[in-house]
Write the structure tokens for this entry.
Amino acid sequence: MGQSAEKMAKAFGIKREDQDKFAAQSHQRAGEAWKNKLISSRIAPVAVPRGKEVNIVTSDDHPRPDTSVEKLSKLKPVFDRDLGSVTAGNSSPLTDGASAVLLASEEVARAEGWPILGLLRGYHYTAIDPFEHLLMGPVSAVASVLDQTGLALSDLGVIEMHEAFAAQVLANIYGLGSAKYCAEKLGRPAAVGDIDPTFINQWGGSISLGHPFGATGGRLVIQLLDQMAQKSAQFGLISACAAGGMGSAMIFERA
């Protein structure tokens, strides 16, 4: 996946400076979200044995709010050591974690008296040729779920995009905003639409919060719904890439 992110960065002209800028933004926003207790209410403490004692871990240890573009720029490329731009600093780390969400029909939720955080209005899973650009699946998935719901990117008050790599997120944004890419790869008459990289992942993303496989999706859902409530946003979008050329997207409506 790292090699694919590197390949995408070269193909779509994603600069190292822009990747480091996006990664620094992720860490700084995660730090602010923790500081302002925007995330802590959704975190379950974990007991960690240390010798004969047990420590209670109540917060993630990966976010580095003091990081900067200058610090990140000093890291060496990992996947193409000579001409690359993808580093450990602008990639998501492999971390431990778990997540859970409760999905039910609206009728059951209301009958049981469960608090409804949001309504799933549409979702789409897709797969693309993994030998071309492995992590571009979200472009197709986002385009399809927007068509499914009749919405446009401009209708979305919150957007959460899984940050496998800064290069991948920026390449996905490029694909959605490129009429040429959308015509050649999706057969669409125009671009899906533009996304400002500073608009997405307001509370940090996988680069800063970590990427425990199988748990990131749950984090994305809850983080999206909490932000939608905070901003009184009607609609929100999640997208994620995955190994094998897969992509997924979901649109939620605030209850």
